[in-house]
Design the sequence.
């Protein structure tokens, strides 16, 4: 029998030379914001040239978390904003409404 | 009628100055709802929170018609706020007379002077705990600015709810919300059992639980707890037989 754990979010960071990829599975809201901020602080120590958020498994995002993601990676080279990979419909809508889609690159 | 981004910023700034921690949470929710009503120039705004049975109950309203929405959704078990809550998505309905998603709800809502509606789920720790809604008595094509403004007010409501839960305020509302959060875990587990057993989608599993609770006139959390207990016992028996 399959048991599904309720209320679980995972934020995993995959590191490759020059690139950090943050994979979020679950929902990003007020409660998870500190978890995400912690991971971003760790990544900022390495200052990778490319920062990717894989949000295919992110079923919800609030405006605060969207701001956190779009504003991440201040060290990134000019013209290389954070990449949002495969955003779900909900994530895409929030990024569009908040105008934050202009601060990142959407990748399918 | 358009929502101005400038007005929204101003309103959020004003609300941001309120010291929610020192305020009764009901009072703070009322302020949010009244401000939402004014900013949108709508005919009503409301903040609903889930109870232990996952029914959406009004916590603060700016118009009596929000009471109809609460009652109609509980009675018909369908409606835009329920959809926003369950799918955790902003739900827009421009004209309830043309709406096909919630036929029973719409018919009665229109008769009570509710024509258009925008509903946004309030997220908290991996699930929705309530919904912020605005209503209009006229048909209304909601603009992107309106959607954004509602998202902003929803974030504020989430912040307020977090303050309430962390501050352990001893109010009826805080108790209702805490009970809803507690029951959520067991309902999620019961959904997991049904998904594993019958290969249902999460949505279908939830619908089945609700239908069973309704048919047996029992609480959703109780039906869920029994299902989980039976599943665990069956698993234990199977382990012994092995």
Sequence:
């Amino acid at each position: 029998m399959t048991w599904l754990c309720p209320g679980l979010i995972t934020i995993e960071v995959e590191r490759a030379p020059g690139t950090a990829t943050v994979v979020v599975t679950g929902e990003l809201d007020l409660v998870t914001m500190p978890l995400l901020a912690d991971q971003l602080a760790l990544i900022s120590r390495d200052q990778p040239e490319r920062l990717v958020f894989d949000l295919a498994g992110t079923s919800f995002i609030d405006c605060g978390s969207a701001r956190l993601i779009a504003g991440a990676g201040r060290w990134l080279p000019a013209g290389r904003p954070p990449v949002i990979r495969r955003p779900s419909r909900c994530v895409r809508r929030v990024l569009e409404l908040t105008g934050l889609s202009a601060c990142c690159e959407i990748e399918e | 009628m358009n929502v101005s981004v400038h007005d929204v910023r101003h309103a959020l700034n004003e609300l941001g100055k309120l010291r929610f921690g020192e305020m009764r949470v009901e009072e703070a929710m009322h302020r949010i709802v009244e401000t939402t009503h004014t900013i949108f120039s709508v005919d009503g705004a409301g903040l609903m929170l889930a109870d232990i049975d996952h029914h959406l109950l009004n916590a603060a309203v700016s118009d009596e018609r929000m009471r109809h929405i609460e009652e109609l959704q509980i009675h018909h078990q369908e409606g835009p706020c329920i959809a926003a809550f369950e799918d955790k998505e902003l739900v827009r309905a421009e004209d309830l007379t043309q709406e096909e998603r919630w036929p029973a709800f719409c018919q009665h809502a229109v008769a009570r002077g509710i024509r258009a509606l925008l509903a946004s789920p309030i997220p908290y720790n991996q699930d929705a705990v309530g919904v912020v809604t605005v209503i209009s008595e006229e048909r209304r094509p909601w603009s992107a600015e309106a959607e954004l403004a509602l998202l902003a007010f929803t974030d504020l409501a989430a912040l307020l709810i977090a303050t309430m839960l962390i501050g352990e305020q001893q109010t009826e509302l805080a108790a209702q919300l805490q009970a809803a959060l507690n029951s959520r875990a067991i309902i999620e587990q019961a959904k997991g059992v049904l998904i594993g057993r019958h290969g249902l989608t999460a949505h279908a599993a939830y619908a089945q639980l609700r239908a069973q609770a309704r048919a047996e006139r029992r609480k959703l959390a109780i039906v869920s707890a029994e299902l989980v207990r039976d599943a665990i016992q069956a698993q234990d028996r199977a382990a012994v037989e092995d």
Chain A has one domain: 12-107. Residues 1-6 of chain A have pLDDT under 50 and may be disordered. DSSP finds three helices and six strands in chain A. The beta strands of chain A are 10-16, 19-28, 50-54, 58-61, 83-85, 105-107.
